[in-house]
Design goal:
By secondary structure, this protein is an alpha/beta fold. It has one domain (7-244): Spore Coat Polysaccharide Biosynthesis Protein SpsA, Chain A (Alpha-Beta Complex), CATH 3.90.550.10. It is 29% helix and 26% strand. A 7-stranded mixed β-sheet has the order 5-4-1-6-12-8-13, with helices on both faces. A 3-stranded mixed β-sheet has the order 7-14-9. A two-stranded antiparallel sheet has the order 2-3. It is globular.
Length: 247
């Protein structure tokens, strides 16, 4: 089973504290990587995947980000962007999506972090997610990266994945080779009876795990988590080497 994804939520409202001093003057989604702001890496990936609408939440230095998004719209660069205003209260990942649900519609939608990007191989990973989606079995489907094919990540991993794609959390003190790559498909029912106000998507993922309805697939390519200046430097070097190789 597969699904046609037409709408995405791009999470772009964070404070970017770990990216200081670069974020002293700009929101993290506007930090440039390989000549383009991080937000453009995310939106261009969505456009390549055929996604028509993107809801982007804003909070920190929101005017800077909104001005850039408006310029994209004037230049007719897809997808069509709708802003979800979180200036008054930062709602974290789960709360931000929950606030934007009326803009996202009743069908499954993509959720994408604005500080994550990747270099693909032959197949587009967003298309692979859509092809792997099974509405009868899943409330959420995560794109996972292999730690040994990742840049900017030094943690212990996030999930164990069973042969059927079901995910469970790693236990404290454990290591796992799979880390969340910042992209997922979610059904709106994932947010039924969600907490009010600010909360993390992890709350809803744990609830889906308990029901056996959180699944994953592994990214085909190299993943980059661009969350700190050293990680940005590493990603810049990776792109430069790729360009030198003609990739």
């Amino acid at each position: 089973m597969s699904v046609e994804i037409e709408t995405a939520m791009v999470l772009a409202a964070g404070l970017g504290k770990r990216m200081r001093p670069l974020t002293d003057t700009m929101p993290k989604p506007m930090v440039p990587l390989a000549g383009r702001p991080l937000i453009d890496h995310a939106l261009d990936r969505l456009e390549e995947a055929g996604i028509k609408r993107a809801v982007v939440n804003v909070h920190y230095k929101a005017d800077v980000l909104e001005a850039h998004l408006s310029a994209r719209t004037r230049a007719r660069r897809g997808p069509f962007v709708i802003v979800s205003n979180e200036r008054g209260l930062l709602l974290e990942t789960g709360g931000g999506v929950a606030k934007a649900l009326p803009l996202l519609g009743a069908r499954p939608f993509l959720i994408c972090n604005s500080d994550t990007t990747w270099v693909e191989k032959e197949t587009r990973n967003i298309s692979r997610l859509a092809e792997a989606w099974n509405e009868a079995a899943m409330d959420c489907l995560l794109l996972l990266a292999q730690k040994d094919r990742s840049l900017g990540y030094a943690g212990d991993g996030d999930f164990h994945m069973a042969a059927d794609g079901k995910l469970t959390r790693r236990a404290a003190g454990e290591q796992t080779p799979l880390v969340f790559a910042g992209v997922s498909i979610a059904h709106p029912r994932l947010f039924e009876d969600a907490p009010s106000g600010a909360f993390s998507l992890n709350v809803l993922w744990d609830r889906a795990i308990a029901c056996g309805r959180l699944h994953g697939i592994v990214l085909d390519g190299w993943w980059m988590h661009v969350g700190t200046p050293p990680a940005l430097f590493e990603a810049e070097r990776f792109f430069a080497e790729l360009d030198a190789q003609g990739g």
